[in-house]
Amino acid sequence: MPIIILAIESSCDDTSASVISDGKILSNLVAGQKVHEAFGGVVPELASRAHQANILPVVDLAIKNAGISLSGLSAIAFTQSPGLIGSLMVGCSFAKSLAQSLNIPIIGVHHMHAHVLAHFIDDPKPSFPFLCLTVSGGHTQIVLMRDYFDFEIIGKTLDDAAGEAFDKAAKILNLPYPGGPLIDKYSVGGNPHKYEFAKPDISDLNYSFSGLKTSFLYFVREQVKDNPNFVNENLSDICASMQQSIIYHLMKKLVKASNLTGIKQIALAGGVSANSALRKAVESEGQKQAWQTFVPAFEYCTDNAAMIAIAAHYKYLKSDFESMEVSPSAR
């Protein structure tokens, strides 16, 4: 009998469901939430309400697209942590209720672990050990992966995440939410060396983006004070320069981590891995450093249930199930 798992991702503002059979993704659906655009960021209470409205139709369509029936499921997986607690509770409660009705086990998955294991959805797949730069709105980490479940975080942000730096920069520029992808969009054709911002000086493998954010804020304020049209007249150069500053910091520590460990298998994961300039930087640096680089398909970079499904597949093989007393955790 094939191992068929329904996976649910609801850590933030995207409701996603995926079905996996013996390690092969059969369906992967994502429903976004437009309601947050007016507020310039995710409103937790609105997010949890939208998950409640979206989860049933998204799961139903994922099951139909996969061409299976509920009776064929072997287990149900869900994002257990980290994330917005209200959003996580919707996914967890739904998974537990459905699993109980079908009398099948449940599998709790760590969101960031799933981002790394997204590399095992499609070929080519990295071999162990490898380093994974995991970059999202809430996390920035360098993870040394020795096995699917044997890993060590050897570098992390000490304050803000890279994705947050992108989004805050966009907000300073009065770009609509979500602003990170717009920074990437407007950077095309811009001069990445036109403006310089503060470069964090940390000796180990950890990151810091708070100083860069502050430097960017003060720069824009001063320029706008002298010329109210400064942002509109120089948007591409501003975005390209800020993007370059963030990517420079990310790549500097990744190169250092590779040199210290001697590992040449380098992977990129997390929502910010969808950034076109970062993907190019990893590939370009890979050629210089003789790395073998791995970047997931776009659909597996941002929050999605397929990455929860592949993580759950490997947990199922270990019979790593949760009790029905399990509860989600924001951190």
Explain the overall architecture:
- The radius of gyration is 20 Å and the shape is globular.
- The protein has two domains: about 5-115 and about 300-315, 2-Layer Sandwich (Nucleotidyltransferase, domain 5); about 125-295, Nucleotidyltransferase, domain 5 (2-Layer Sandwich), CATH 3.30.420.
- With about 325 residues, it is α/β, with parallel strands linked by helices.
- The longest helix has about 30 residues, at about 230-260.
- The mean pLDDT is about 95.
- The strands form two sheets. It has a five-stranded mixed β-sheet, sandwiched between helices. Strands 8-7-6-9-10 form a five-stranded mixed β-sheet.
- The protein has nine helices and ten strands.
Please describe the structure with a list of short key phrases separated by commas or semicolons:
Nucleotidyltransferase, domain 5, five-stranded mixed sheet, alpha/beta, 2 domains, 9 helices, single chain, 10 strands, 331 residues, 43% helix
Sheet with the most strands, sense and barrel status: 5 strands, mixed
Share of residues in strands: 15-25%
Structural classification = alpha/beta
H/E element order? EEEHEHEHEEEHHHHEHEH
At the first level of CATH, what is the class of the largest domain? Alpha Beta
- At the fold tier of CATH, the topology name of the largest domain is Nucleotidyltransferase, domain 5
Q: Helicity range of the residues?
A: 40-55%
CATH architecture of the largest domain: 2-Layer Sandwich
Instruction: Please state the CA-atom Rg, rounded to the nearest Å.
Output: 20 Å
User: How many distinct domains?
Assistant: 2
**Count of individual beta strands:** 10
How would you describe the shape?
globular
CATH homologous superfamily designation of the largest domain:
ATPase, nucleotide binding domain
Global mean pLDDT: 94
